[in-house]
């Protein structure tokens, strides 16, 4: 499996609060015969699902901590003398995470209750999400935590279903849904796939195999976007545009597109462009658009900047 496919499995799990494309057109039917009313209903239905996933009790609005871990031992809890300071509701000294060359191990402090898959734990190895695997998730009241691997560095990710961001969330303003922003695209394949370096807001970079560029036209001008992951059903794109840092998030937006059919055709619906998790929390690891994916035009479609962002 190539780097692009490996990253795809991770991204689908970690970024899919935007949801799959679900356009419903078969091969050869993409971009054909969709009325403005039908299109608006499709986008609105997708958006309702997007908000449901975002506001779920394990969605991105619950993220309250992200801690890098090198080999060593890390105490965690709500007390300020911990290596990792958890929300105030956590026990003062909840436990320790030991990290070595083989991975991470949780050691629960005496008298503290934690669970994994509904069963009490006192000590357990913490599997990571490497290569799209399911990490070992530990529950402690409304708090849950697990280990992620980004690349070559382990992080402890902490969520709280009762976070203030989730409780105070009032929605996200969008541009009006317009059929004109649902554009036909064709694949300009790279043979062989080209390595593309993807920057990340957390400060690291990843190199992925890009299968080609999606070429499309707006107002008679041709543009290109390179997907950073691919699967059988859909491709994932991170892009910026002239609204970035003004009407929309400065770090770009995400959009999924249907995988091109045998004829190399697909559709990009910018009405489904959505904010990355980093808009809502400083504790996320988000890919940023590489230079080739910054469009020199205003994409006035999809989500606007979230009003609660202060980072």
Structure, described:
With 311 residues, the protein is mainly beta. The protein folds into two domains: 3-55 and 173-293, no CATH class; 60-168, Tumour Suppressor Smad4, CATH 2.60.200. Helix content is 12%, strand content 35%. The longest helix has 19 residues, at 36-54. The protein starts with a helix and ends in a 42-residue tail after the last strand. Residues 1-16 and 20-32 have low confidence and may be disordered.
Short description:
This protein has helices spanning 3-15, 36-54, 164-168, and strands at 63-69, 72-77, 84-85, 95-100, 103-108, 115-116, 119-120, 123-126, 138-140, 143-150, 153-160, 182-199, 205-218, 221-225, 229-230, 234-239, 253-258, 265-269. It has 311 residues and is mostly beta strands. It is elongated.
Which characteristics define this entry?
single chain, 311 residues, mainly beta, Tumour Suppressor Smad4, 2 domains, five-stranded mixed beta sheet, four-stranded antiparallel beta sheet, 3 helices, 18 strands, disordered N terminus
| C-alpha-based Rg, rounded | 21 Å
Report the sheet with the most strands, covering strand number, pairing sense and barrel closure.
Answer: 5 strands, mixed
Number of strands: 18
Order of helices and strands: HHEEEEEEEEEEEHEEEEEEE
Give the termini distance in whole angstroms.
36 Å
Q: How many helices in DSSP terms?
A: 3
Residues in β-strands, percent: 35-45%
Low-pLDDT runs of 5+ residues are 1-16, 20-32
Instruction: Look at the helices and sheets and give the structural class.
Output: mainly beta
Mean pLDDT: 90
Shape, principal axes of CA atoms = elongated
Number of domains: 2
Strand order of the largest sheet: 3-2-4-5-8
Q: Portion of residues in helices?
A: 10-25%
């Amino acid at each position: 499996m190539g780097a692009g496919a490996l990253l795809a499995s991770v991204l689908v799990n970690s970024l899919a609060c935007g949801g799959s494309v679900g356009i419903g057109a078969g091969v050869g039917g993409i971009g054909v015969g969709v009325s403005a009313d039908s299109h608006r209903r499709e986008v609105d239905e997708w958006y309702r699902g997007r908000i449901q996933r975002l506001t779920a009790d394990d969605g991105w609005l619950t993220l309250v901590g992200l801690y890098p871990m090198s080999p060593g031992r890390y105490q965690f809890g709500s007390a300020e003398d911990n290596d990792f300071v958890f929300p105030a509701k956590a026990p003062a000294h909840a436990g320790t995470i030991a990290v070595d060359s083989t991975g991470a191990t949780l050691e629960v402090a005496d008298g503290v209750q934690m669970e994994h898959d509904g069963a009490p734990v006192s000590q357990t190895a913490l599997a990571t999400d490497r290569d799209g695997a399911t990490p070992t998730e530990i529950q402690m009241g409304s708090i849950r935590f697990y280990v992620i691997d980004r690349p070559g560095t382990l992080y402890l990710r902490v969520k709280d279903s009762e976070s203030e961001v989730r409780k105070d969330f009032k929605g996200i303003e969008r541009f009006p849904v317009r059929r004109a922003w649902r554009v036909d695209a064709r694949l300009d394949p790279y043979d062989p796939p080209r390595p593309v370096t993807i920057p990340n807001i957390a400060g690291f970079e990843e190199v992925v195999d890009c299968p080609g560029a999606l070429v499309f036209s707006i107002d008679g001008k041709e543009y290109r976007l390179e997907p950073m992951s691919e699967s059988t059903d859909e491709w994932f794109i991170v892009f910026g545009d002239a609204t970035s840092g003004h009407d929309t998030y400065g770090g770009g937006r995400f959009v999924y597109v249907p995988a091109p059919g045998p004829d190399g055709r697909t559709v990009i619906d910018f009405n489904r462009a959505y904010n990355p998790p980093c808009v809502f929390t400083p504790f996320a690891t988000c890919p940023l658009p590489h230079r080739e994916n910054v469009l020199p035009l205003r994409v006035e479609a999809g989500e606007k900047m979230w009003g609660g962002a202060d980072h």
